[in-house]
Amino acid sequence: MPRIAHDSNTLARCAWRAARRGCGAEPMNPHPYAFLALFALVALAVPLVLLGVARLWFRRFQPPRPGPAKNAVYECGVAPTGDTRIRFQAHYYLYAILFLIFDVEVLFLLPFAVAFSGLPAGALLVMLVFVLLLGEGLVWAWHRGHLEWT
């Protein structure tokens, strides 16, 4: 049976000798966070190197500074007439958003209709509130004239 050391000095010396010799165990890593530091260094270095390479590439192959001919509007070889910027009305976007809202309503109603017979009465009440809120939104959009395509 091996001897057991009882005082703290003996335990400390045994632990020091075991760590120094290895005693069949894996050697201790002196810096347990060295891998994380290396990972952070690589994570910072890679984008910085890529940005540096991109900057050098840009300086080497940069096209000449644009002039009036380069900044001119080009429409398939035809000289532009009038203002090239047109203003879109928000009406078209609102119409599209209303379409999406009522299209998604169908996605919520379809599973409800399939599982209607197995659902409790509370589910019917929740779906009724959902449809009434969407109906209110439809009445609001109709009243405000957002559904008129003029």
- Which consecutive residue ranges, at least 5 long each, have pLDDT under 50? none
Q: Categorize the overall geometry.
A: flat
Give average pLDDT, whole number.
Answer: 79
Based on secondary structure, the structural category is mainly alpha
Count of runs of 4 or more consecutive helical residues: 5
Break the fold down into its secondary structure elements and pairings:
Elements: H1 8-21, H2 34-61, H3 68-71, H4 90-114, H5 121-144
Helix pairs in contact: 4-5
Structure report:
This protein has 150 residues and is mostly helical. The chain folds into two domains: 1-86, no CATH class; 90-144. It has helices at 8-21, 34-61, 68-71, 90-114, 121-144. The termini are far apart. The mean pLDDT is 79.
Keywords:
2 domains, mainly alpha, 5 helices, flat, 150 residues
Give a quick rundown of the structure.
The chain has five helices and no strands. With 150 residues, the protein is mostly helical. The model has no long low-confidence stretch (mean pLDDT 79).
